[in-house]
């Protein structure tokens, strides 16, 4: 009932219902309560008719769910209504670097100059940056590191050095696309 009435109408409806329950309602107030209920029922009937018309048009013009909603919206609705299990989003860890034995997490903030300068200099010079990478066996984080370096320096990392990190160019391109998003 609440979504069928405006806030003021619903507040008045609640007041009148309380008066009716305690038998202190006047004839005019009872008429007002009936009018409020009648308006709510009319609105409910109008909404039901509109939904029926929409369903008819969807069937008549063979409109698919994909034309009405994005894949994300469909997935969210399916999870909300328990049609598919609510999967946890994959947690993506930021690139992790080391320099002079000190660890650095490369989050959305810029790296401190004490590692940024030597890392960027080596990268721009076409040298391997494997010594800077703290997680050499994590291909996804390595690809994210290279993608960020390429984006921030404008240089392209050599394929030989990608192989050294067990990362493909496709993985770096995918990480670059995620950075852009």
TrEMBL record:
Superkingdom of origin organism: Bacteria
What is the protein name stated in its UniProt record? Uncharacterized protein
């Amino acid at each position: 009932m609440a979504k069928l009435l405006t806030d003021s109408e619903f507040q008045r409806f609640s007041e009148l219902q309380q008066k009716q329950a305690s038998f202190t309602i006047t004839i005019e107030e009872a008429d007002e309560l009936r009018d409020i209920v009648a308006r709510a029922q009319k609105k409910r009937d109008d909404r039901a008719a509109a939904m029926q018309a929409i369903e008819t048009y969807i069937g008549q013009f063979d409109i698919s769910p994909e034309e009405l909603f994005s894949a994300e919206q469909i997935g969210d609705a399916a999870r909300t209504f328990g049609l598919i299990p609510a999967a946890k989003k994959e947690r993506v860890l930021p690139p992790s670097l080391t320099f002079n034995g000190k660890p650095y997490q490369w989050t959305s903030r810029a790296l401190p100059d004490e590692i940024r300068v030597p890392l960027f200099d080596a990268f721009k010079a076409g040298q391997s940056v494997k010594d800077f990478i703290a997680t050499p066996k994590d291909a996804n984080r390595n690809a994210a590191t290279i993608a960020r370096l390429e984006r921030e320096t404008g240089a392209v990392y050599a394929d030989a050095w990608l192989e050294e990190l067990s990362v493909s160019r496709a993985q770096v391109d995918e990480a670059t696309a995620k950075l852009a998003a």
